[in-house]
Design brief:
This protein has three helices and twelve strands. With 170 residues, it is mainly beta.
């Protein structure tokens, strides 16, 4: 019986030690878990109201892309004009400064030049500044693609689920 008391005491101390406390508790404040498809809020430049749309979280893409049509780049004024469709199906013409022009490799060959604009993104409870490139994504299921640069803001992806943080857009 005397041997059991030290063993029980040792086990009790090990169970209560900080090393045995779940690591999930500290990660809760640092990360959120999103589905592979989520609604995102995009605030472009000086617009009052953000645009809500479904976006695909893509850990295979480095940067983020936003569907836009009628893209016109004015290099003199360093501004880009483009049309996007909001959550109500209305087209909005936006003119805003661009940060840079990137060259994206297209398969099987060639390159495409895309303007990159600063935006404010919100995914779940995470709100942050980001840069997205503008391109015509009309042949894709989702009009926005969120890449690794934006996912680094503490967003983990559960690839088995969608809309973990939001309801599907109607």
């Amino acid at each position: 019986m005397r041997l059991n008391i030290p063993i029980i005491s040792l086990l009790f101390l090990l169970i209560l030690s900080p090393a045995c406390v779940s690591a999930d508790k500290s990660a809760d404040n640092k990360h959120i878990i999103a589905g592979y498809i989520e609604n995102v809020s995009i605030k472009v430049w000086d617009r009052d109201a953000p645009i809500i749309m479904e976006a695909k979280m893509d850990t295979g893409a480095d940067s983020s892309s936003l569907h836009a049509t009628d893209i016109v780049i004015n290099k003199k004024s360093k501004k880009v004009s483009f049309t996007i469709t909001d959550q109500h199906g209305k087209n909005q013409r936006i003119t805003c400064p661009y940060a840079r022009i990137v060259r994206i490799k297209k398969r099987p060959s060639g390159y495409q030049r895309r303007p990159v604009i600063p935006v404010q993104l919100q995914i779940g409870s995470r709100k942050f500044e980001a840069f997205v490139n503008l391109t015509d994504r009309s042949n894709f299921s989702y009009k926005m693609l969120i890449g690794r640069k934006e996912l680094r803001h503490g967003i983990l992806i559960d690839s088995s689920r969608h809309h973990r943080l939001s309801l599907p857009a109607k």
